[in-house]
Amino acid sequence: MTALAEPATTATPSREPAVPDMPGRAVPAVLAGVAAVGLAVLLSGPGTVLLVVAATAVAVPVAELARRLRAQLGAAAALEAQRQDLVTRGRSTAEELEVATRMMRARAQTMTSVIDAVTEQSIIGTDQDGLVRVWNPGAERMLGLPRADVVRLRTITDFHAPEELSPEDGPELDATGRFAALVRVAQEHGSDVRDWTYLTADGRRLTVSVAITPRTDDDGERAGWNFVGTDMTEARAAERLKDQFVSLISHELRTPLSSILGYLELVMDDEEQPLTAEQRQYLSTVERNAQRLLRLVGDLLFTAQVDAGRFTLQPEDVDLAAIVRGAEETARVTAATRGVAVAVDVPAEGLVVRGDALRLGQACDNLVSNAVKFTPAGGQVTLRLRTAWRDADGALADAAGPGAEPVALLSVSDTGVGIPSGEQGRLFTSFFRASTARRNAVPGVGLGLTITKAITTAHGGTLDVASVEGRGTTFTLALPL
Ligand SMILES: Nc1ncnc2c1ncn2[C@@H]1O[C@H](COP(=O)(O)OP(=O)(O)OP(=O)(O)O)[C@@H](O)[C@H]1O
Ligand SMILES: [Mg+2]
């Protein structure tokens, strides 16, 4: 290191001449003195000896003094080296600090420019008490107030509809209580996304989907809160309109359809005026299609209710074995016509779960009707019902493991067209139909599985699929016991 090499050049040269400069020379000097004395004794006799002894007595302490001085000089040089070292280190620390500061500034600049570039979403940052510290152009646009009028001057709850932040039947809370209500769920779960009503500067009310997350400082301490909002006012209004439209249409279609089916039944069952075979065949086709329309209308209405979160269950004790037998009965005629065999394997003593009998029947019917319609002639459909165990990770097993819960397991297997593995993830999306269904021109609109999944989830259950294209499919529905 240069710092260690430097003392030779920095030692003060002016002090050097006072002492011999190198330790190696001290010993020869003393030896030279002693030799000189010996020579003098030999040459000059005893008188001179005394003089030489005196000179030698002075030379020895001088050499000792020189040794100490040299030691002190050595120590001083070492100290200087340390000082240099410290100076160098200090310099590099200062440089590192400057680089780090520059990087921090650049990062902050990037963050600010990103936040400022967001104009469609409001990004609002507050301190721990809700005082606004960050207010991006998106917030300016959405709420109609410039940053200068808000930052460090207003709390975020000023922009929230107060009735959403106070208990419905209690008194209105103060600003602190309102802010605590706003971040309560995010505090408990780490984040929260939901719709809130924002109040704009010009008095409009906006439905905003707000993601609330805590913000921490460099030490991991909580520094405040982030609120990222997307204006959903128009989207929510459109959703409401769509729901109203679907409900209205479904209702309006259902009434005439019920009337058509009712009169059809009267005509077909009229013993006084029996129909010809041909008439009966025509009217059977009318009836089948009217039933199909009725089911489609019912499915549409139900899907709209699920989407709107307006679907409720009427729970009671339900024997799943009876439901499975009922589904087989419903599918029997179609299966026989198509040449598909249906086998039922359910416990003779039944298997009772808590649930909505009508909805569970609908879920089971959907799975069985799919199995029958996606299985070509000569194929086999098997309905199996048994108890099993679901562990904490959701995996199903035949025996109880630690923390496992008992479940009723209904599986519907077929030897049909199957579903390509890449498409299986989208099966529970409304109107999705796999390529195997479209290719084989199997009729349907793609609502049955969405409905089945919604019913299963509402019962705290799970619905899984295993399928191999061209080989067959198994849907497994597990319900808590
Ligand atoms: N057992 C099955 N075998 C093969 N493909 C299936 C099976 N069950 C469902 N699918 C695939 O999943 C898609 C969605 O099923 P879903 O029941 O929701 O709709 P659908 O039967 O086509 O119409 P809908 O039930 O509304 O009359 C089907 O179109 C089909 O591609
Ligand atoms: Mg279906």
TrEMBL record:
Its EC number is 2.7.13.3. Residues 1-13 have a biased composition (Low complexity). The keyword Membrane applies. It is an enzyme of class 2 (transferase). GO terms for cellular component: plasma membrane. Keywords: Kinase, Membrane, Phosphoprotein, Transferase, Two-component regulatory system. Its cofactor is a divalent metal cation. Residues 192-244 form the PAC domain. GO terms for molecular function: calcium ion binding; phosphorelay sensor kinase activity. Residues 1-20 are annotated as: Disordered. Its main location: membrane. Residues 107-164 form the PAS domain. Residues 248-481 form the Histidine kinase domain. It is found in: Cell membrane. PANTHER family: HISTIDINE KINASE 1, TWO-COMPONENT HISTIDINE KINASE. NCBIfam families: sensory_box (TIGR00229). This is histidine kinase. It comes from Modestobacter versicolor.
